[in-house]
Design goal:
Elements (H helix, E strand, L loop, with lengths): L20 H14 L1 H5 L4 H30 L3 E5 L3 E4 L2 H8 L5 H6 L5 H7 L3 E3 L3 H16 L3 E6 L7 E5 L2 E5 L12 E2 L5 E5 L2 E6 L5 E6 L2 E13 L6 E11 L1 H5 L7 H12 L16 H26 L6 H4 E6 L6 H12 L4 H11 E4 L10 E3 H7 L1 H21 L4 H7 L2 E2 L5 E3 H8 L2 E4 L2 H9 L3 H6 L4 E3 L6 H7 L2 H11 L20 H26 L8 E6 L8 H17 L8 E6 L7 H19 L7 E6 L4 H7 L5 E4 L11 H7 L3 E4 L5 H8 L5 E2 L4 H8 L4 H7 L1 H11 L12 H8 L7 H19 L2 H13 L6 H13 L3 E2 L5 E2 L1
Parallel strand pairs: 1-4, 1-13, 4-12, 13-14, 14-18, 18-19, 20-21, 20-23, 21-22, 23-24, 24-25
Antiparallel strand pairs: 2-3, 5-6, 7-11, 8-11, 9-10, 11-12, 15-17, 16-17, 26-27
Helix pairs in contact: 1-3, 3-4, 3-6, 7-34, 10-12, 12-13, 12-15, 14-15, 22-33, 23-24, 23-30, 23-32, 29-30
Bound molecules: ligand 26W.
Length: 833
């Protein structure tokens, strides 16, 4: 071997790739031909999709490198969005849109005999999230890239995403979602940036050279974190940000058996245990389950991501951390990554020799926390015992944070033991628990809720003590959705009509939709609006026929509720209304009913008994109603299996009535409500979450409001008497009687007893019976407007026109103005503060 072998080798940068669609198509053709699967000529659309994705990825990578270089040369402050979930859905169409191939790709591919739509539909959803919180993270990334904010996502590359849902005998069946089987053409693995994450072991304290005590974390079981990077393009602006997803890999100790000498099988099993960390997404969206593997996932993400940021800092600045706080922000997506607080302390103190106060100053100047739920069962707590076994060094740090924090509490409320116990990061009891939300609040300079009402309720309720201590930390950031995916890409027909009418500015400035308002008065425009929506409804009808075997009349009122199945979201209230409509049709009470097609979809957490039973009720009601010849197409009901991002892309553009009917005070914000509104659906909803702001924007007359307010809900709970309500309401009594008669469960007696009992229970937290009458009345008002197509179309247009506030572009501007303070960085030059 020659002694002058260079230590690093690199090719010169390649020439820039053409942004002509024909060149893109030729590159895809080349990728396809050079893959053996392509040569084999099996004709699987998945291969053609991958080929096109690789041709696009090359173009993304060019821009990604330019963006990173621009951020580095500007020495810009950066923010990192830490999230256990990124619900990205499909990527192909989004990349085509953002890179400017939206119109040109299909014709260019057609010249080669390929239909773009087939490729788009071949892509599996990246379902790395449960629902709202995960999809919000994905919309945030899109908006940050579009606004040219230097924000990077950090998450986990689950081998299995959200389970696939099938319905068998009216029951949910979960199937594993091996979304990576066909490979993931968008990601780039970067083994060079592998990090090492430690678990278990013990700690020792020894004096260092200066005589200061230093902690050593020893005897650990380590796991490697390998990053897989996914490019996130901005909208036609040359910016490409990154999403870094970590994959767990066993260390060489496992492979080579130094650690397990002589015990091959145990060594391989141990390797499995290590790699299991990133195997599967936990499918719970509202109740924490305390499983050790989940805590491993959380720490794995926090540790790998913070090590990554700190390592890059050290590579540039050495051990000088004096400007670290000025240059970095960490946004915690709920408490799931809140191990980041003690982990950053550990890295700074144990690995970089900072003292406590300096490290704490850095943590509390860089960390911000977003809360996404008020439900007490969703608030994360980890048993001190479990936490200490798995992360002994972190537990010591949590104790120290708590001790110092309680000193501050004591100063503010002297000798108040109740106050100390209430605010302590440790909940005492037979099995002491760490309150992760409190840890996140204490470690953060900003705490935000996700809609105005939610943020107020946090201040008044859940976090009232902390608000009293640090009022300045608390703020609101109302959620949004990206209009590029949810309007421009999902609803090309409407986008075209809007563009012809008011121009295309809304793609990057959603407020521009306001200009549609006067056109609501134009009969010709209303007709064009209806034509577009009618085509969208045809498309959805075809999907419903195919997936549910139910035929929807595209002229019917499409009444839709799609979201995770949860009691607080009250799919039950929806189905009670359906049964009520069915009874009226059977009785002939409705002479001239408005034809309705009711669509319900969503996944239940596998261990959530009531949610699963609600799915069964929906399916059984659908079966009976659709099978009743006398009803015909005046009422149709379908449960859509496997609701996911790509399903919503077809559903939202075709929905007339958007069901947002949670018990007031329970839905933190909602984001489905915004996707529907943007696409011209009218909302029937309670004063909950962002519904309140939606109604404010669109006006009371264009929103079907009903139900108790959050305050009234609390008040009603004290003397709630559902039996009396049922007795006094003949319609509700008839609905309950029909369900109780076994009409919907002839061969399965007792099937719906748990549901009936829940509704009749004075302890029912969701107050289903209390809101029934108001809901039925609001539905009748919606039907009455529907009878007048001109009036309903006007409302539809005005909803789209008023949806400007609900763009994540606005949300991200707000985060940046109040929390992050990042400059915008344009890779084409210019950096603006
Ligand atoms: C610990 C298990 C777990 C997992 C996820 C508990 C709670 C969650 C999330 C809080 C569930 C979620 O997605 N919350 C939703 O977040 C959206 C984005 O802010 C809001 O729009 C929804 O109202 C909120 O329910």
């Amino acid at each position: 071997m020659s002694t002058d072998t260079p230590r690093s080798v690199r090719f010169p940068d390649p020439d820039p790739l053409s942004m002509e669609a024909d060149a893109l198509a030729q590159d895809a053709r080349r990728y396809y031909g050079h893959e053996w699967a392509g040569d084999a000529g099996g004709g699987d659309p998945l291969d053609a999709y991958r080929a096109l994705a690789l041709a696009l990825r090359d173009r993304l990578v060019e821009r990604w490198r330019a963006t990173s270089a621009a951020v580095a040369s500007a020495d810009a402050r950066q923010a990192y969005y830490l999230s256990l979930e990124f619900l990205m859905g499909r990527t192909l169409n989004n990349v085509l849109l953002n890179l400017g191939f939206a119109e040109s790709a299909d014709p260019a591919l057609r010249k080669l005999g390929v239909a773009l739509e087939t490729l788009i539909d071949a892509e599996p959803d990246a379902g790395l999230g449960n629902g709202g919180l995960g999809r919000l993270a994905a919309c945030f990334l899109d908006s940050c890239a579009t606004l040219q904010l230097p924000v990077t996502g950090y998450g986990i590359r689950y081998e299995y995403g959200m389970f696939r849902q099938r319905i068998e005998h009216a029951r949910q069946v979960e199937e594993p979602d091996h979304w990576l089987r066909g490979g993931n053409p968008w990601e780039i693995e970067r083994p060079a940036d592998t990090r090492r994450v430690r678990f278990r072991g013990y700690t020792e304290f020894r004096p260092d050279a200066k005589g200061r005590m230093r902690a050593a974390w020893l005897g650990t079981e380590d796991v490697l974190a390998v990053p897989c990077d996914v490019p996130v393009p901005g909208y036609r602006n040359e910016t490409v940000n990154g999403l870094r997803l970590w994959r767990a890999l066993a260390t060489d100790e496992f492979n080579l058996g130094e650690f397990n000498a002589g015990s091959y099988t145990e060594s391989v099993a141990a390797k499995n245990a290590a790699e299991n960390i990133t195997m599967v997404l936990y499918p719970n969206d509202a109740s924490e389950n305390g499983k050790e593997l989940r805590l491993r996932q959380q720490y794995f993400l926090a540790s790998a991501s913070l090590q990554d940021v700190v390592a890059r800092w050290v590579a540039r600045h050495g051990s000088d951390f004096s400007r670290f706080a000025e240059k970095n922000r960490f946004q915690l997506n709920d408490t799931h990554p809140s191990c980041a607080v003690p982990e950053l302390m550990r890295i700074l103190m144990d690995e970089h020799d900072l003292d406590w106060d300096t490290a704490w100053e850095i943590v509390t100047r860089t960390t911000a926390y977003t809360n996404h739920t008020l439900l007490p069962e969703a608030l994360e707590k980890w048993s001190v015992r479990l936490f200490g076994q798995l992360l002994p060094r972190l537990l010591e740090i949590v104790y120290e944070i708590n001790a110092r924090f309680l000193t501050e509490v004591e100063r503010r409320w002297p000798a108040d033991h109740e106050q100390l116990a209430r605010m302590s990061l440790i909940e005492e009891g037979p099995e002491p628990q760490i309150r992760m939300a409190y840890l996140a609040i204490v470690g953060s300079f900003s705490v935000n809720g996700v809609a105005a009402l939610h943020s107020d309720l946090l201040k008044q309720g859940l976090f009232a003590d902390f608000h009293a201590l640090w009022p300045e930390k608390f703020n609101n950031k109302t959620n949004g959705v990206t209009q590029r995916r949810w309007l421009v890409a999902a609803n090309p027909g409407l986008s075209k009509l809007v563009t012809e009418t008011i121009g295309d500015a809304f793609a990057t400035n959603l407020d521009a939709l306001r200009a549609l308002r006067p056109h609501a008065e134009d009969a010709g425009f209303r007709q064009a609006w209806r034509r577009v929506r009618r085509a969208n409804k045809d498309r959805l009808s075809a999907v419903v026929r195919q997936c549910c075997g139910v035929s929807f009349d595209p002229d019917a009122l499409f009444d839709v509720q799609v979201k995770r199945i949860h009691e607080y979201k009250r799919q039950l209230l929806n189905i009670l209304h359906v049964v009520h409509l069915y009874l009226r049709l059977k009785d002939g009470a409705d002479r001239d009913p408005v034809p309705r097609a009711v669509l319900i979809g969503g996944k239940a957490a596998p261990g959530y008994f009531m949610a699963k039973r609600i799915i069964t009720l929906v399916c059984k009601v659908a079966e009976m109603v659709n099978g009743d010849r006398r009803i015909g197409d005046r009422l149709r009901v379908a449960f859509l299996p496997n609701y996911r991002v790509s399903a919503m892309e077809v559903i939202a553009p075709a929905t007339d009535l958007s069901e947002q009917i949670s018990t007031a005070g329970k839905e933190a914000s909602g984001t489905g409500n915004m996707k529907f509104m943007m696409n011209g659906a009218v909302t029937i909803g309670t004063l909950d979450g962002a519904n309140i702001e939606i109604r404010e924007e669109v006006g009371d007359e264009n929103f079907f409001l009903f139900g108790l307010t959050a305050t009234e809900v609390e008040e009603t709970r004290r003397h709630y008497d559902p039996e009396a309500i049922i007795r006094q309401d003949a319609d509700l009594a008839a609905v309950m009687a029909l369900i109780e008669s076994g009409f919907f469960n002839r061969f399965e007696p007792g099937l719906f007893d748990p549901i009936v009992q829940a509704i009749r229970n004075p302890q029912d937290p969701w107050l289903v019976a209390a809101d029934f009458r108001a809901f039925v009345d609001a539905q009748a008002r919606a039907a009455a407007v529907w009878r007048d197509p001109e009036a309903f179309t006007r409302m539809s247009i005005l909803n789209t026109a008023a949806s400007g506030k609900f763009s994540t572009d606005r949300t991200m501007r707000d985060y940046n103005a109040d929390i992050w303070g990042l400059p915008t960085v344009d890779p084409r030059g210019r950096t603006r503060p």
